[in-house]
Structure formats: C-alpha cells, structure tokens
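---------- Forwarded message ----------

FYI, see the Phospholipase DDHD2 isoform X7 record below. Original note from H. follows.
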Amino acid sequence: MHHSPCGDTLAGSAKMSEMSSVESSQEHLSDPSPSPNSSSSFELIDMDVSSLYEPVSSHWFYCKVIDSKEIWIPFNSDDSQQLEEAHGSGKDCNERVVPTDGGRYDVHLGERMRYAVYWDEPPSEVRRCTWFYKGDKDNKYVPYSESFSQVLEETYMLAVTLDEWKKKLESPNREIIVLHNPKLMVHYQPVAGSDEWGSTSTEQGRPRSVKRGVENIPVDIHCVNDFRSVSLNLLQTHFKKAQENQQIGRVEFLPVNWHSPLHSTGVDVDLQRITLPSINRLRHFTNDTILDVFFYNSPTYCQTIVDTVASEMNRIYTLFLQRNPEFKGGVSIAGHSLGSLILFDILTNQKDSFGDIDSEKGSLRTVEDQGDVPTLEEDLKKLQLSEFFTVFEKEKVDKEALALCTEKDLQEMGIPLGPRKKILNHFRTRKNSMGVNRPDTSASEVNSSKENGDYLDVGIGQVSVKYPRLNYKPEIFFAFGSPIGMFLTVRGLRRIDPNYKFPTCKGFFNIYHPFDPVAYRIEPMVAPEVEFEPMLIPHHKGRKRMHLELREGFTRMSMDLKNNLLGSLRMAWKSFTRAPYPALQASETTEETEAEPESGSEKSSEVNTEETPVEVKEELPINVGMLNGGQRIDYVLQEKPIESFNEYLFALQSHLCYWESEDTVLLVLKEIYQTQGIFLDQPLQ
C-alpha cells in the first residue's frame, strides 16, 4: 500500500521551486517597467490564464470487495473532510483514528485501513484519491494509488507550468497514461505480447478517460441501498423542517449478528451434501430458513441463540453509549424472519423492573396478574359457592392449582356434583381467556411443563430455556416478514389476550410484504371474532401505487356494471311475470327489498341507507389489544406493479425486500420520531 507522508502536498518538495518561479514572475508584473523577459512571461500568461497551476483537491475513498471484484466507494463529504484535516494535522497524524459513517467505522490513518466498530467484518483499504481512470466494464472511475497519483500530479504541474504537453507515463502495472492537454488525458491497458522496448505497441486498444480531481464524480450519493442510507435520504425529503430546526438527530441502525456463529458448526456442509441439485435458489432459501427453525426448536441451540442475540444487543448498546456519552435518545429494535420470533420470545420474558430475572412475571401466561384480578374467594362468591372456600384453603389449593384440578380431584375433596360443574366450567373458561388460549391439556401435561430447575416455561410453547435480560427497555419492536403468528399457533396458542403487552416494550409493528411466504398476521389472534384488513403502508411519495388504484377502480367499475345489469334483468323479469300466489309475491317483495340496493340506480334512498352502515362499519374502532398501545399492529406493503404480475415469481424476493424498501424505512422513522413528538412534514395519503 502506497501513500504520501502526512501533510505533504501532492506536488512534492522537489517541484516547489518550479511553482515559486511562476509566482515570482507574476509578482514582477506589478513593476511599471518590466524587463523583456518578464514581459514575455506576461504575454504567455496573459494568453492563457487557465494555464496557472492550482493544486488538486482530494477526496477519500474505501475499497469493498464484492464477488471478488474491488469497488471503490467515496466517503461522504463530512467524513472525507475530517480525514483530510487529520491527514494534514502534523507528524503524529499516522497514529490518528478517525470515526466515520456515523461512528460505525474507524479509519486508522497510518494503516490506511477502515475497521467496523460494532460487528466483525474484514477491514477495507482506504485511499486519499486525486487521480482516476474509467473502469473497463461498469464505466465507474477507479482511483490510482496515492504514490502514482503524486507522480501524475507532478507531471501535470510541470505540463501546466511550462505549457509542454503530450506527456507519457508508465504506471507500476505497465499501463500507459498520456496527458495530451488539460482536457484530454487517456489511459491504455497493457497488451499481452507487446514489445517491451517500444511504447507504441502498448498504446493499443480503446483508451480510457483519465480524470484529475473529483469534480463531477458523485461522492455523496452512491448506490448502496441499505436501510441506513435510505433513511438518511428520507430525512432530507420527509423531515426537512425538523432537521432545519435542529429538532431531531439521525436514527442510527446497528446490526446484530447471530446467524454466522450458529452456522459455523458444520451442519451447513452436511446439509449441502444431501441437498438435491434442482431449483438451486429455492433449496438454498429453504436450507437457510428451515435450518434456523430446527436450530431454534432444539433446546441446546435455542439457548445458544437467545444468549447470543441478547448478549450482542447488550454489547452493542453498551459500546454505543461509550462512544456517544451525550446520547439521550431511545432505542428500538427490529427483527427479520426468525430473528423477529427470537426478539418476541426474549421480550415476552423480560421483567418490568430491573430485579431478579428468574421470575415468570411479564410472560404471556401470567398476563392475568396485570390489573385488578379477583381472588379465589371472590370468584367463589360470584359463583355463590363461598362455603367451599374453606375446603380449598385446607387443601392449600389456590387459583392456579384449581385451574389444574380435574373433576375427580374435586370429587375427592367432597365437592358435590353441581358445584363441581360450575367450578370446572368457570376456571376452564378463565384459563382459556388468559394471555393466550391453548388446547385442553391434561393435568400431567401441564405439570410436566412447569419450571425445571433454573429454566422457565413461559406458557406459550417455547422451548424451556433461560431467557436473558436486556440492559434497556426498547421503545418499539418492528417485526419484518415475521412468522410469529404461525409459531404461536403451532405452539398451541389460539388467542392473545387484548390486555397483554410486553413487560418492557411499548410498541409492536408487524410489517410484511403481501407475497412474503414466511410472513403471518398477528391481529386475528387478538380479535378472532372480527375480520378486517391490515393497515396499508403508504407509498413514500404519497398516494397508493398507480396499479393498485387502477385495480380498485376497475373492481368498482365491474361491480357497478354487474349490479346495473342485474337490476335491469330483474326489472325486465318483473314486467313479464306475475306471482300467482300472495305468499310468493310477498316473498319476492322481500327479496327485492334486500337485493335492490345492489342495483345502485333504482332507488337512491334505499341505496344510501344501505351504504351508510358500510362506511360506519369501516370507521368503527377495532380492538387490537395493547401489544402496540391500542394502535394497529399489522401493516402490509404495497406490491410493485411488476410483482403483481406473478406472485409466486417474486415470493422469495419479497421476503428480503424490507431492508431496501423506502416505504418500510419511512414507517419506521415516522413511528420512532413520533415518540419524540416529531411528525412528517406532510402527512402521507
């Protein structure tokens, strides 16, 4: 790796005398009686003022290796300026460490290397760039090494100063660079088999453009469509007022890596050995997803997973506070696919107060402990069976124990048949209306799922593991493409109590793409008796996507046509037929009255009375419980026009779409900033 010493100019000290001579001749121009030599210099400079040399402006880049190909990516302007200031700060600059990318990466200036702060990632080379050439395939500018850029700059300076062009240089890789004039500089790749004694043979092939400086090279917006860069762009477009008023800072996104350590066990290699070669992409997706599910359902691996996730979340949070001691914002968490289920299980096992975590408080099965819960004595009084309280007290049977009792147990305690039936019915109903409903289980099955040593059973069918505690209380939990609903159902849960909420997290959003094969809804588990659609996530540019509006328009039009046609046919049929009996006529009249509103044209008053309840029905508040503080939980993205042509074709792709989706990012930003009282510049329709 080659780079110039800190603080040196690219021109280099050897050529500074050339520059000073030009400057002295300029100063000499102020003499009212210039010498012939100086006047000739004056004439030369006056003829072409643009030939005056100005040092090149630099910009800092880092190198990413993607698919075995090096791609040079510019630092943003602020980071580049910080690196440049550190570079020119003096002799100790090589020991400087400069935080970049919002503090997510540190650049070690002397090494010219960029290191990830919060996660493991191969370090990347950093370069102070001044000269570039266009690549052979992607047409992007590639920076020369710092040492060769210095040679190019010195040659350019001489050419400008002396007005001597057509300079030819050979790079360390035997590439030929020709400086024809300030606006025409080209680069030739070495040609195999060329004559190494002559230069003409190496100037073959299509010349590539050579560029000095970063002017007209986009250095602030580059093609990295990740969650963080999308959010930074949306801040500029949707929260501009709040930014200008300095009401908000940016939202930082830090990844939690639990997947890689889990898959370093060698199981992946064994699985690949038995995987069929056909439909490779689908099988890879299946292996990757299903293997994690099997891992998570194994007690051994499940404990490893929850420990890894929680410890990483705590480590990253602690490290972030160390590096940002002034931070006073909130923390939200997001999980994708199985990751969302892991977070859900961890959150259901948190404790509201930072005390002993080996407590079952806050789990879904103990939701009945929240609020004013009647005692056993009060329950029996309500059933008018108070006289049996002493029996239960004598046998040390509390409400939980009573919920586990069979009819035979009550009979052995001397409870008569009538009261037995009442008690069993009452407490069976109560058990089914706790945090979740589960299928009926025998006493032995329930007993076997009680606490086992230090491990907890949270009552929702999770593997019995010890769930770690997070060092903070998340504001909001976002689930992307989440199978939480499916897992809860398979675990035996039929209903989530509307009063249940996470012990330490106030908000919960279940966000999914309509074609995502891994995603399931949550709200129907809270309100199973009501059918309603999920919330449609607005397009980040406002309104619905055009094809969805067209589809709805065509649907409405076809329904209107259908209803009008049916109404016309009915009128025609009525004009040709008469009911022979009053009973039939009455029945027909009733049928017409019920069906006529569908026609939409015969009796406007009847249509309006029929339509009004429909609108009211849509506006009625839906009780979706307290998981999201009483607000809606399920949010569905709008599919793109091309995706709507073939749902199956885009199914796998839709499961991975969330990290690049502007609509998803905007919803996340909107909800996070709302916790601080900050709203969008303009509400989306």
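H. also flagged this: Residues 546-576 form the longest helix (31 residues).
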